[in-house]
Amino acid sequence: MRLGDGDYLSWIKLSLVFGYGSKRMLKMYRHHLSAENFFYELYYHEEKTATEQEMFAARNLPPETVDKILDTCKELGIKVYCYESEGYPERLRALANPPAVLYSFGSLDFLNDEKTKLQFVGSRSPSEYTKKILPNFISPLAKLGFTFVSGFAEGVDRLTNDLARENMADNAVFLAEPLDKNPNLDRYREISKGGAVISEFAPGLKLYTPRTYSLRNRLMTCVADALVICQEGECGKGLDNISYATTLGKRIYVIPPGDLFDARYFGQRDLLRKGFTPVFSSADIVYNQSKENGLAVDLSILDSSENYLYNPTLPPEKKNPKKKPKRVEKNKRYEHKLLTPQMLEDISETQRQIVYALDNKPLSIDELSLKLKLPAQELVNEITELELDDILSQDVSKNYYLL
To answer: What is the third-level CATH fold of 88-279?
Structure first.
């Protein structure tokens, strides 16, 4: 029994002919109707843009090589995803050198959902400080539905894997080696029950690529929405991910060093100097990601001592709380009452956006449309409902303001 034929097998053959992480392969493939057609023209020397070496490799690819890959996958229960497969991670298609084939323990469907995916980056020899703070970040994020992306190295990678599994979070583990080249097969299968263990390197074959970690890192960074730097020295290998992340426009969070004079944290120190985002709790990450995605997130699951800055339903605890006065604009023309959490819960998401937009100053309908990036016509009905509920009103200059 084979896992597929036609283009399925052609993608595996192309990955062996061009090698892993080839930009040239995808560029040439776009001029063909299918991978099968592409490989056919390579095999019969009809691909005019191919080099002699590429056509020779296609012509002399032993059939038993592909058979060995598929036999290994069948024996171990490894799933195979080619570039055109349903379920192939959509984010990887945006790479200039996406993997032609992915081999996986577990389904990859969760990599295409809308959950925020975080990659925690850190040392293989984490300090006690790092071991202490990681649960405080990962456990709350897992409960909020975040997905975690990591490698399988000792240290921060393994801690991330374990904490994600403990909190029943989706967990994507990327390897820098074939899936069958490690004695941890039972652990891979355990992880796959709540995620997947993934490699672009064909099982059943010897691996000759020297830059496996660099190739693996590009996949992790591409799949993740943001990176969290936990512990890195001045020349830490995890910093290689930063160049991938900045190129792809990913947000980078940096946990402040446990000791400013400890060389184990100099990588974080330098990243903070360059202006990357510091985070002091899981609430910082949740707030920044929800703001970036334009989604409202319920932070009540987090510790109120950490998230009161972002969650209006959880005011900071004070020993002698004082009654907060009404907010008044500087010209005292627009005096309005504080909105209660109950009022915010009873209105729609668009109406909440309108309220937040008017929190600082009155705005016209056109200014609201520009700020919220919504058509003015769509805002009219929402504003009318807010006026009927006595939440906002309009002045003589036709600017809306909160009551």
So the answer is: Rossmann fold (3.40.50)
